[in-house]
Design brief:
116 residues, SH3 type barrels
């Protein structure tokens, strides 16, 4: 929590666009409201506050990203490409068995035999 942030301060996004004013400060973040007749509001986490100076708060996200989050979507900057497919690991060399399995060529031991 940044003690310098107070209700009434103007909030700007990462692109320098005015988002609105701080209306509430909570332990998790700040509430920002823009507009009176058709309000938009956002909750911005404290770790997204980049700078506080001269009554202005600058946050790490643009308003498009904040709107996507508010609508339950994922901002474009959070999207990542699909990771490349990775070939499965090679089979163990013959003579080896997976953990818990009997060694090749050996039958189950009495302790491992499910038939008792």
């Amino acid at each position: 929590m940044d003690e310098r942030v107070k209700p009434g301060m103007t909030v700007f996004d990462a692109d320098g666009k005015r988002l609105g004013k701080v209306t509430r400060c909570d332990p998790e973040g700040i509430e920002v409201v823009r507009g009176f007749w058709s309000p938009f509001d956002w909750v911005i986490r404290w770790d997204e506050v980049l700078d506080v100076e001269d009554g202005r708060v600058r946050v790490a996200r643009g308003d498009d990203e904040l709107l996507a989050l508010a609508e339950g979507g994922m901002p474009e900057s959070w999207r990542r490409g699909t990771p490349p497919l990775v070939a499965p690991p090679p089979c163990p060399p013959s003579g080896y068995a997976p953990a818990g399995a009997p060694a090749p060529g050996l039958g189950p031991t009495p302790a491992m035999d499910p038939r008792g």
